[in-house]
Amino acid sequence: MNYETAHKLLIAQTLTTEENPDALLMRMKQGKPPIPGQITSILLALKVVFEGLKEDSSLNRELAFALYQLGVKAQQIFVAGRKAGVDWPPLLKEDLLRISLATESIFSGVWQTPPSGVFGKF
Question: Which domain of life is it from (predicted)?
Fold first, then answer.
């Protein structure tokens, strides 16, 4: 995956329109789990974007908003869904944490990894 493809994929995952029914945020708002491989693709795209932006001191607004939505909004949707009784896949919470850490990495310029044992605390 190259930078341009990764950039487009991340933005597409946040577009909540009828034309994009499989976007992560759209699916989650509907109480649906991610499609198989979707989280893996997002995490790969985040790593590619991180590597592509390591030397840059700024982000474009569209990408920054997509990163915010993936890193923060997805977790908010997850919590709201759980409160509404959505039966999310068992590892989705951990996957969303990985996404959040990867988005934080892009903003900070330093790749973040979950602390040892963090997933056992959920």
Answer: Bacteria
Residue type, 112: Q
This prediction has a pTM of 0.88
User: Quick one: how far is CA 8 from the chain centroid?
Assistant: 13
Summarised one tens digit per residue, pLDDT across range 55-86 is 888 889 999 999 999 999 999 999 999 999 99
Pair of tokens at residue 68: 């915010």
Q: Do residues 28 and 81 lie in contact, with contact meaning Cβ atoms separated by under 8 Å?
A: yes
Is 27 within 8 Å of 34 (Cβ atoms)?
yes
Token pair in block for residue 89: 């896949």
pLDDT surpasses 70 at 117: no
Q: Is 71 in contact with 24 (CB distance < 8 Å)?
A: no
CB 71 within 8 A of CB 10: no
Q: Where are the alpha helices (DSSP H) in the chain?
A: 3-12, 24-29, 38-53, 61-68, 74-83, 92-108
Range 74-84 burial, b when 16+ CB lie within 10 A, else e? bbebbeebeee
